[in-house]
Amino acid sequence: MKKLLLLFLLVLVASSCANREAVKPMNTDKSKTYRVGLGMMEKHALYNRGFTFQLQEGEPFRPSIQILNEMPETNTFELYFLLDYKQTAVNYGGKQLKTIRMETAPNGSGQLDVELTGLPAGRHELLLVAVRNPDKPLMTDQLVSPMETYYYRRATLLIGSDKVTEPAFQEVAVGQLEGSKVRNVFLTRPKPTSLNDMLKRFKHEPGSSYDLHFFTRPEVEKYAVTALVNNEQAELPVHFIRKTERKEGLISLPFAFEPPSGRPLSDLTLIVVENPFERIDDEAGTYTKIPWMVYFNNKITVE
Length: 303
Fold this sequence. Notes:
The protein has about 300 residues and is mainly beta. The chain has one helix and 23 strands. The protein has one helix at about 1-15, and strands spanning about 25, 35-40, 50-55, 65-70, 75-85, 85, 90, 95, 100-105, 110-115, 120-130, 150-160, 170, 185-190, 200, 210-215, 220-230, 230-235, 240-245, 250-255, 265-275, 295, 300. Strands 13, 15, 17, 18, 19, 21, 22 and 23 form an eight-stranded mixed β-sheet that branches. It starts with a helix and ends with a strand.
């Protein structure tokens, strides 16, 4: 079973530049490269890449989720499920859960099966996010790469038909910020002057507002933006963004949130998705190679 899992994850990475975030190097030991893999398989996959699934109306979606931990230490992962960019509960062990924890042994793997029901007709997106060691907040104002914290698997679900209901996209201009040509999503106080204003561990004052930023590539016109505070999706609506100009630069959005009361430290996860509701496999099974990446922030701890 482990050999099959390893093969599946390697094929997953080799077959998709658009999903190359599914397996990421870990830099715990600078002399070695460790990898964490996140896979999702389900019998309704249309093609062997496992990005597009076709179901009949009323039929449940029952994916098997695998995590491969090639690190020489035990790791805990917290799993979140976003259906059409809104956090959703899945059936696991007879319970409806928004989050599921999985622990993996050193150089080991884990697997679990979940179920989604009541999926409406048409085309939908499922984003599976795994957060590594969610109970380890930043103790200092240090920079921890998203490659050491976040992993994802993105899939298109076709329920009955491939009818797309596009959201209302907000037109946003592309700006600039000194030193901002980075792929990560980052957070600042309003009106930052450079990338050095990026927040990592910081104290939140009630009612404070922030700016969420991400760098855009010229070839990508549309994005979806959302956030998680600890294990719950932030109350702000999902932002669907369309650039006013097809050029590279920085997209900045106002961002406000309130961490839960009674909790001394909170984790903040920022998520930006390229080309929401687009298929990576077309009707003929051709891999379209459209930009299909998902970006996260450097680890953020809020006091």
